[in-house]
Amino acid sequence: MMVLGIETSCDETGVALYDTDRGLVGHRVHSQVALHAQYGGVVPELASRDHVAKLAPQVRTLLGETGVPLKDIHGVAYTAGPGLVGALLVGAAFGRSLALALKVPAVAVHHMEAHLLAPMLEAEPPAFPFVALLVSGGHTMLVAVEGVGRYRLLGESLDDAAGEAFDKTASLLGLSYPGGPALAALAAKGNPGRFRFPRPRTDRPGLDFSFSGLKTFALHTVRDHPDDEQTRADIARAFEEAVVDTLVIKSLRALDATGIDTLVLSGGVGANRRLRRRLSELELERAIKVCYPSVELCTDNGAMVAYAGCVRLSAGQKETPGIEVRARWPLAELAAPTADALG
Ligand code: KG4
Ligand code: ZN
Questions:
Q1: Mean of the pLDDT values across residues 288-300?
Q2: Does residue 227 carry a pLDDT above 50?
Q3: N or C: lower Cβ tally within 10 Å for the chain?
Q4: 69 pLDDT higher than 90
Q5: pLDDT category, 321, cuts 50, 70, 90?
Q6: How far away, in angstroms, is 300 Cα from ligand 2 center?
Q7: Paired residues of 263 in beta bridges
Q8: Cα–Cα nearest to 212, from 183, 246, 181
C-alpha cells in the first residue's frame, strides 16, 4: 500500500510517499522560516496562505522525483491536529479532495502520534512497548506506548513546552526565529559552569514538566550581567544543559516507573545534539535502549504522517468524508486502528 502523507500543522509544508513494501519512497519539506523570520514567530494567516501556494507544487515535484504516478497512490494521510486551524485546513481539504478524486481512502492523522511513530521509519525501529519523550514547539510529553493507538500519558508540561522555552529564551538572547537551533549553536560556544540554571520539578516526585521559570531565570541572568557575546553563549549553554538534564531525569524516571526499557525521542527538540548525546551516553551506562529518528524526521515532516496514516489505513480504519481539524486534540483520545473503531 502506497500512502501520500501531508503535513501542514504549522510552518512546514511536508509531503511524503510511504509504501508498506518499499518503506519511505521519498519526502520533501518546504520550510516557511524565511516568511516568518521578520515577525519573530509564526504568523498563522501567512502560514495558511503559504501552504495553499506550496502544497500542490510540492506534491507534483515529489511524484516527479520518485516516478510514482497518481494512480499508484492507495491512500492519503493528512495532519488533522493539533496545530494552527487555518494551516491544518489547507492540508485536510487538499488531502480529502485528492483522495476523493483518486477514489482512495483518506485518513486524519494526529500530529503527535506521527512524531511518536517517526522512529519506525529508521533502519532499526523500536519494539513495543516503549516510553516516548515527545518534545516539540507546542508539546512536552512522556507517553507509555503499548502499540499503535494505545497511549498512556505519563507526564506533560504544565506551562511552556520545551521548544517554546528554547524559542523564548533565544529571543531574550537576541537570536532570531526559529530559536531552538540558533540557541543550540550559540550554546556550543559557551563555557560550562559559569552559570547554573535550575532543573525544574526534578526535586519532587512526578513526571510533569514546567519550563516557564527557566525563561524568567534567563531574563534575570541577562539583566544582571554584561551584554557581551561570550556571556550570551555561556547563558545559552547553561539554559540548554538545564533543559536537557530535566528531560533526561524525567525520562529515566518514566522508564523506572513503567518497567519499560526502551525510550523513543521525537519532536523538534529531539533534533538537539546535546540531548541526543546525553541519551546515547545513558544507553551505554544503563540497561536501556534509546531510539530517535534522524534529525530531519524529528522536526515536522510529511514522512511521519504518511507512516502513521499507512498503519491506520492498513488496519482498515475508515472515516466519514467530512473535513474536520482540531487545534487541540489530546493524544489519549486516539483509539487503536481497527476497522470498526471509527466506523
Ligand atoms: O516538532 P516541531 O518541528 O514543530 C512542532 O510540532 O512544534 O518542533 C519545533 C520546535 C521549535 O520550538 C524549535 O525551536 C525546536 O523544535 N527545535 C530545537 C532544535 N531544532 C528545533 N530545539 C532545540 N535544539 C534544536 N536543535
Ligand atoms: Zn511537530
A1: 96
A2: yes
A3: C
A4: yes
A5: confident
A6: 5
A7: 131, 290
A8: 246
Cross-strand partners of 251: none
Cα 227 to averaged position of ligand 2 atoms, centre (Å) = 33
Task: Tell whether the model's pLDDT for residue 337 goes beyond 90.
Answer: no
What number of other Cβ atoms are within 10 A of residue 328's Cβ?
Answer: 9
pTM of model > 0.90? yes
Say if CB 235 and CB 228 are below 8 A apart.
Answer: no
Q: Would the CB of 270 count as within 6 Å of ligand 1?
A: no
**What tens digit of pLDDT does each residue of 99-132 get?**
999 999 999 999 999 999 999 999 999 999 999 9
Could you tell me if 91 and 8 are in contact, meaning their C-beta atoms sit under 8 angstroms apart? yes
**Contact 136 CB / ligand 1 (< 6 Å):** yes
Ligand 1 in reach of 14 Cβ (< 6 A): no
Block residue for cell numbers 544543559: 241
Residue with CA nearest ligand 1 atom 24: 272
- Measured between its terminal Cα atoms, the distance across the chain in Å is 21
DSSP assignment string, 134-148: EE-SS-EEEEEEEET
The residue to which cell 473503531 is assigned = 341
List CB-based neighbours of ion ligand 2 within 5 Å. 136, 300
* H or E segment and range at residue 256: helix 229-258
Query: Residue whose CA is closest, atom 1 of ligand 1?
Result: 268
Q: Which ligand is nearest to the CA of 266?
A: 1
Residues of the chain with CATH 3.30.420.40: 2-117+297-333, 128-292
**Best of 299, 328, 329 for a ligand 1 pocket test (most atoms within 8 Å of beta carbon):** 299
Question: Whole-angstrom Cα distance, residue 243 to residue 152?
Answer: 23
Mean pLDDT lowest for which of 86-100, 236-250, 313-327?
313-327
**pLDDT bracket for residue 338 (50, 70, 90):** confident
Average pLDDT score over the chain:
96
Report the CATH number of the 128-292 domain: 3.30.420.40
Class of domain 2-117+297-333: alpha beta
CA gap 39, 325 in Å, rounded: 26
Query: Taking a C-beta distance cutoff of 8 angstroms, is the pair 306, 17 a contact?
Result: yes
